[in-house]
Amino acid sequence: DRNMARQRMIDSAHLLNNIGVDLIVDLIGNNPMEDEQTMRETFEMLLEFPEDFVMHEVNPLAMYRNFPITRVAESRGLLGPMLEGRNAWLAEDKPEYHFWTAMWTLTQFNALPRDTLRSMADDPYLREHPEVVEGIMQGFLKSSFMNGTYVKKDRKIQEMEEEQSRLNGSRLIRLARRLRDAKNTFVRSRSNANGRVRTQQPETVGS
Predict the structure, then answer these.
(1) In angstroms, rounded to a whole number, what is the distance separating the alpha carbons of residues 171 and 150?
(2) What is the rounded CA–CA span in Å between residue 158 and residue 55?
(3) Are 99 and 29 in contact (CB under 8 A)?
(4) Are 105 and 94 in contact (CB under 8 A)?
(5) How far, in Å, CA of 137 to CA of 102, rounded?
(6) Which residues contact 160 (CB under 8 A, 6 or more apart)?
């Protein structure tokens, strides 16, 4: 429900985290009905979410013909290009959309202190050059997730280590290792025996 109160959304996010449910956030950006204040409010709300959450790629709002939001946007002259092959429009592209999309995305990385993110949000240079924030965002995405997925690398490594630990304790694995060691011992003993035979010199028979 998009009309849930801000605090209720924050409380729900923490509740899910506390009971062990992975929190995955989906946001729609480039909404021409949103202003600077509402985009900042979304940013501040995300900063109050649990630190360990995943955010899917923020996609731009598509406004379809005859939808109420589309009629309002059209009456205010806010419709941008029409999507090819679809009966829908996007909002006109603006630098602030790029800036806030990147800032929202960065809130999921607990390596970035909240105070640092707030300082970035208030930085005039970054606001004028959102491509800098987008570059930081891309760097964190590439270093934090498995390629082409939303699986965090550190979690995947932890899962692999736990799986290896379980396998190490498996009776079947222990038996397989004993058989492997026995085979290696047998091969070494055969190699040593063959080596002694090859190096043994034949006796010389006197004439």
Answers:
(1) 34
(2) 20
(3) no
(4) no
(5) 6
(6) none
DSSP 150-171: S-BHHHHHHHHHHHHHHHHT-H
Burial per residue of 154-191, b for 16 or more beta-carbon CB atoms within 10 angstroms, e otherwise = eeeeeeeeeeeeeeeeeeeeeeeeeeeeeeeeeeeeee
Tens of pLDDT along 44-64?
999 999 988 999 999 999 999
Q: Return d(Cα 164, Cα 173) in angstroms, integer.
A: 11
pTM of the model: 0.70
Residue 29 pairs in a beta bridge with 60
Taking alpha carbons only, the member of 105, 101, 115, 99 closest to residue 140 is 105
Tell me if 68 sits within 8 A of 30, measured CB to CB: no
Instruction: Report, in this order, helix, strand and coil percent for the chain, each rounded to 5.
Output: 55, 10, 30
- Please tell me the distance from the alpha carbon of residue 8 to that of residue 178, in angstroms, as a whole number: 57
User: pLDDT digit string (tens) for 176-202?
Assistant: 677 777 767 766 777 666 666 555 555
- Across-strand partners of 23? 53
Q: Which residue has the tokens 């790029």?
A: 98
Query: Which residues, listed in sequence order, are joined to residue 64 by a DSSP beta bridge?
Result: 88
Backbone dihedral region of 70: left (phi > 0), alpha (psi from -120 to 50 degrees) or beta? alpha
Rounded-to-integer distance, Cα 28 and Cα 141, Å: 18
Residue type, 95: P
Q: For residues 115 and 21, what is the distance between their CA atoms, to the nearest angstrom?
A: 27
The tokens for 11 are 């409380």
Answer whether 25's CB lies under 8 Å from 58's CB: no
